[in-house]
Design brief:
The complex is a heterodimer of chains A (256) and B (194). Chain A has 256 residues and is mainly α. Chain A has eight helices and two strands, in the order αααββααααα. Chain A folds into two domains: 143 residues, no CATH class; 72 residues, no CATH class. The longest helix of chain A is centred in the last third of the chain and has 32 residues. Chain B has one domain: Arp2/3 complex 21 kDa subunit ARPC3. Chain B contains eight helices and no strands. The chains are: A mainly alpha (256), B mainly alpha (194). Chain B: Keywords: Membrane, Transmembrane, Transmembrane helix. Chain B: It comes from Peribacillus loiseleuriae. Chain B: This is Thiamine ABC transporter permease.
Chain lengths: 256, 194
């Protein structure tokens, strides 16, 4: 999502957002069913190409975004590799017990987590939330009450961040002494969460009242500011995955 | 009283949820900071990811709010670019559903702390089920799995149960909950002529 950082527009941006979401969910279900490590690796490469080349982000930012992926991969696979069950022992040291089975299963689960992460971030980087919710209303017939609430709530995020800063500054101005220890964590949580939550609830309530006062209604045959349709990019997107995944699967069976 | 959620309820729920969506993302780094300690110390922090359902339900007290809140928080987290990607959406739906089922079992009429703890445990159960399907934690050695479960359930009770309950208690003192809660029979009784 482009909150405060801009990027170039690529063909991934022009795909119908609902269709993109649907394809990604399908892909995630396929990922859950894959138990072949080679196919999983091919799958990762296929998705990685989209992420690295077509999200329209500068290379530096892409590399930066890659760090959490790597952590997710390591953390997910490591606990299974170190503590998983298996018969063929490779390495044993104290509680750590690496076996052949646990190693490959760890890698498989690691790649699975990596794939989910890349798919999700690719979607987030190439989809404007406003278009997504307009598209969901038009193509999936999502109830406008939910769609507009989501859009309003996403608009409130910058205000929430600003409020966070305000509270921080206010505490500094009034000379709140920095405390340490467990108690201070709870005090701090309370000092921030209560004003921010109550402020947000009040604001949300006011927005809802204002929307209803302006005759916001649930009728389905409403008009839209953005008309979201389908284009040739949608076909390209689907064909990309169908052909490359089939190729990847074929390659995995042949042992590439 | 009309059935279903009104625009106000939905909007307030989603705004609360998105606020927690931001917390969820930030919580990811806390979670990973504890990861190197090993022995599933990080699992103790997992409970924070169930808090939105409980807080939203205890504020608004209507059917469907818990499920909506958890889904909205997950989609907020997803749209802002969570390192877990689409997984958070799947987990969010299941966790929200399990929390909602507990409130439904009490017919949305009980708001005691025990209900909050029960729904936290239910959401935790949902996440564990998802982990079995997705993360294959079933393959962990028995002692390791036990440790994992204890840490996660204890964390859920503390964060999503007790913390959520007291958070709403303090919010009640600010008076903001009166805006969004449905009128109870006690409110009607106060209107009656004495």
């Amino acid at each position: 999502m482009q909150l405060d950082f801009s990027s170039k527009e690529t063909w991934l941006h022009r795909i119908n957002p609902s269709l993109k979401l649907f394809v990604l969910i399908m892909l995630c279900i396929i990922v859950l069913l894959v138990h072949n490590l080679l196919f999983m690796m091919n799958f990762t490469v296929i998705v990685l190409i989209l992420f690295l080349c077509f999200t329209g982000q500068p290379t530096k930012r892409i590399l930066l975004l890659f760090i959490p992926f790597f952590v997710v991969f390591l953390s997910t696979s490591s606990s299974l590799i170190f503590f998983g069950q298996g018969n063929t022992t490779w390495f044993k040291w104290g509680l750590i017990h690496i076996t052949e089975e646990s190693f490959f299963r760890g890698l498989l689960v690691g790649f699975r987590a990596l794939l989910f992460a890349i798919l999700g971030l690719t979607f987030a980087l190439t989809t404007r939330p406003v278009y997504l919710f307009y598209s969901l209303m038009q193509q999936v017939k999502l109830n406008p009450k939910y769609a507009y609430s989501f859009m309003a709530a996403l608009r409130l995020i910058p205000i929430m961040l600003e409020e966070f800063q305000t509270i921080q500054n206010a505490m500094r101005v009034r000379g709140v002494v920095r405390q340490t220890g467990i108690r201070s964590v709870f005090l701090k949580m309370k000092a921030y969460s209560i004003p921010m939550l109550s402020g947000s609830i009040r604001r949300a309530h006011r927005i809802a009242v204002a929307m209803e006062a302006k005759r916001f209604s649930d009728t389905r045959n409403r008009t839209y500011y953005y008309e979201i349709g389908f284009s040739k990019y949608d076909i390209v997107f689907i064909l990309y995955f169908v052909t490359l995944l089939l190729a990847g699967y074929y390659g995995a069976i042949k042992g590439v | 009283m009309t059935k279903g959620l009104k625009l106000t309820d939905i909007l307030v729920t989603i705004v609360i949820a998105i606020a927690f969506g931001i917390v969820y993302i930030l919580w990811g780094s806390v979670y990973y900071a504890l990861k190197p300690i090993g022995l599933h110390a990080d699992q103790f922090m997992y409970g924070m990811w169930f808090i939105a359902a409980n807080v939203a339900f205890f504020i608004i007290r209507k059917p469907g709010v818990a499920l909506l809140a958890e889904i909205a928080a997950a989609s907020g987290e997803f749209l802002l670019g969570s390192p877990w990607g689409l997984t958070v959406l799947l987990y969010g739906v299941v966790q929200g559903l399990f929390a909602e089922l507990v409130f439904m079992a009490f017919k949305y009429k009980r708001f005691h702390i025990s209900v909050a703890i029960l729904s936290a445990i239910a959401a935790c159960l949902g996440s564990v089920l998802m982990d079995f399907a997705y993360g294959e934690i079933g393959d962990l050695v028995a002692w390791n799995l036990t440790l994992f479960m204890i840490a996660r359930f204890l964390g859920s009770i503390l964060f999503a149960g007790v913390c959520a309950y007291y958070l709403v208690k303090v919010l009640e003192a600010t008076g903001v909950t009166n805006l969004v809660r449905p009128a109870s029979s006690k409110d009607y009784a106060e209107l009656d002529q004495k």
